[in-house]
Amino acid sequence: HDAPKKITYVTDGNRKEIHPNGAFIVDGKTLGMGRWISASRFIVRVASWGGLWWVGELTAGGMQTTCVKEEYQCVDAVPNHAENVYNDCTTATKERRYSDHTHTTMLEEDDDEEDNIVSISEKMAVNYKTT
Fold it and tell me: Is 34 exposed, middle or buried (CB count within 10 Å of its CB: 0-12, 13-18, 19+)?
C-alpha cells in the first residue's frame, strides 16, 4: 500500500512519528519498522512493549489506535484510542537526529511538512493495557 509521503505525527502524551519508510519513533527513539496495510492503517511490532503490535488508523484529527498481541489481529482490530495530530516545534530544522541504543540516523525534513501539521491544545497520557 502507498505510504503517506510525509511524516505522520500523533500523541497521547507520548509523541509518535510514522515516517514514510515505516520508521516508528516514540519520544525520539526508534521502536520499530512498520508498514501500511491499507491506505489508512499502519501497523508495527514494538519489542520493547512486550512484542505488542501497535495499530493506527488515520482519522481527520490524527489516529485511532490500539495494541494487539498477534499480527493477524491487526487487520480486524478496532482502534478506539484517540491520538491527536501535534505540531512538532522542531519542524523548521532541516535535519534532526534520532538515536536509539544502537545507532543514530539523520533524517531529511520535507520543506512543506508544516502543511500537514495541526496544533492541539491538550494531550492525554494513557497507558496501553492488554486484556
Answer: buried
Q: What is the pLDDT along the chain (131 residues), one digit of tens a residue?
A: 677 889 999 999 999 999 999 999 999 999 999 999 999 999 999 999 999 999 999 998 899 999 999 999 999 999 999 999 986 544 433 333 333 333 333 333 344 433 333 322 222 233 333 33
Integer Cα distance of 129 and 44 in angstroms: 17
Tell me how far apart the terminal alpha carbons of the chain are, to the nearest angstrom: 30
Nearest alpha-carbon partner for 31 in 117, 100, 103, 83: 100
Which pTM value belongs to this model? 0.67
